[in-house]
Specification:
- The protein has 276 residues and is an alpha/beta fold.
- It has a single domain, classed as P-loop containing nucleotide triphosphate hydrolases (Rossmann fold, 3-Layer(aba) Sandwich).
- The strands form 3 sheets. It has an 8-stranded mixed beta sheet with strand order 5-6-2-7-1-8-9-12, sandwiched between helices. It has a two-stranded antiparallel sheet with strand order 3-4. A two-stranded antiparallel ribbon has the order 10-11.
- Helix 4 runs parallel beside helix 5.
- It is globular and about 55 Å long.
Length: 276
């Protein structure tokens, strides 16, 4: 039996996955979402939530209505980065996303828990179902760009997002370490299987800039991310530094006040999608 690629359009098997249906889920009737961008990585701890937050902030600053769907159910960090700690409200029509100080719409499991520090001890299918409900039950009104902060790896949740949401492209986040080729490769190959374009790679923790002399120090060794991007046919690469101010902004809930141009080229490419 051949390996399942999860692409039912090219398969004649009458398997359980086909029977259960993997058509794109319809969003809430009150939603209007123009573009959906997934932020992914083959492993955890590389800064997906940071990149997701910065891209949403950039879109907002550039005059677009941005939103973040926090699909990392067991490790949600988006609300804290934006300084949001209140609980989500709703009506019979659905749930309202929280709105940040600068206007970014956000939905995360932390907005639904009685205590945001409570652990989410759920099995994979339940977690995937919750992510799907963030799409179907939340009223995402007038959103130009929705950024989906994925959990690490290629398991239930990324698969659910790729199959259920109309994802227009993904951003791969990696760090400059020896395993980077495997990390990028897993994410890129999953996107290829799902027929979703890779819009760019962000190398986080790429360097540390000395505040005294201004020199860049590559603490994890020389980067090979451009070579990998060429190998996988990805034409946009961004480098994020190790910056204590960025970490402090996430901790304090002030990510919308950051200053930096590292992701400007990538943001411009994403924003151009509205006119393509």
């Amino acid at each position: 039996m051949s390996e399942c690629t999860h692409d039912c359009s090219s398969c004649s098997a009458n398997c359980g996955e086909r029977q259960s249906g993997i058509e794109k889920e319809a969003p809430n009737a009150m939603s209007c979402i123009r573009k959906v961008i997934g932020i992914v990585s083959g492993k955890g701890g590389v800064g997906k939530s940071l990149v997701t937050s910065l891209l949403a902030v950039n879109a907002n600053r550039n005059g677009y209505n941005s939103a973040v769907l926090d699909a990392d159910i067991t490790g949600p960090s988006i609300p804290n980065a934006f300084g949001i700690h209140e609980k989500a409200q709703g009506t019979e029509e659905g749930l309202f996303p929280a709105i940040s100080a600068k206007g970014t719409k956000i939905m995360s499991i932390n907005l639904l828990l009685e205590n945001e520090n409570d652990p989410v001890v759920w099995r994979g299918p339940v977690i995937a179902g919750a992510v799907k409900q963030f799409w179907t039950d939340v009223m995402w009104e007038n959103v130009d760009f929705m950024f989906v902060d994925m959990p690490p790896g290629t398991g239930d949740v990324p698969l659910t997002v790729f199959q259920s949401l109309p994802v227009d492209g993904i951003i791969i986040v990696a760090s400059p370490q020896e395993l980077v080729k495997m990390i990028v490769g897993k994410a890129a190959k999953m996107a290829e299987m799902m027929h979703i374009p890779v819009l760019g790679i962000v190398e986080n923790m790429a360097y540390f800039e000395c505040p005294d002399c201004g020199r860049q120090h590559k603490l994890f060794g020389e980067s090979h991310i451009e070579e990998l991007a060429e190998e996988f046919g990805i034409d946009t690469v961004a480098h994020l530094p190790i910056d204590p101010k960025l970490a402090a902004a996430c901790d304090k809930g002030t990510i919308e006040l950051y200053a930096g141009t590292w992701l400007d080229e990538l943001s411009a490419k994403i924003e151009k999608m509205l006119n393509d």
